[in-house]
Amino acid sequence: MTSERERRASADHGLEESLDPGPPKKRSITIAGHKTSVSLEAAFWSVLRRLADEEGLSLAALVAKVDAGRGEANLSSALRVYALERAARR
User: Fold this and answer.
1) Residue 84 CA, distance from chain mean position
2) Quick check: helix, strand or coil at residue 90?
3) Which runs of consecutive H residues, i.e. helices, occur in 4-55?
């Protein structure tokens, strides 16, 4: 018989692999006609791509959306918080 803990570990296995933080990766993105560089760990890029797909947006459009609402926060930090908040809602 499989324990609840083993079932959860099995179900979470794919998520753990996809969330390996890895080193930060810098990407150039154009927001409102201006090019900017954003440095995030591979796990955050992966989650943000998935969230963009779910919202029917391109990754650049999702980044622009977060950028528009970030206030004084650093863009990389705002993107991490956005991904974390969305994950917490699930």
Assistant:
1) 8
2) coil
3) 4-18, 42-55
Q: What is the set of domains in the chain, with CATH numbers?
A: 4-89 (1.10.3990.20)
For the chain, the maximum distance between any two Cα atoms, rounded to a whole number of angstroms, is: 57
In the Cβ-directed half-sphere of 18, how many Cα atoms lie within 13 Å?
Answer: 12
The b-or-e profile of 52-83 (16+ CB within 10 A means b, else e) is: beeeeeebeebbeebbeeeeeeebbebbbebb
Q: How far apart are the first and last CA of the chain?
A: 28
Q: What is the pLDDT of residues 5-42, one digit of tens each?
A: 544 444 444 454 456 677 899 999 998 899 999 999 99
Tokens found for residue 4:
């609840």
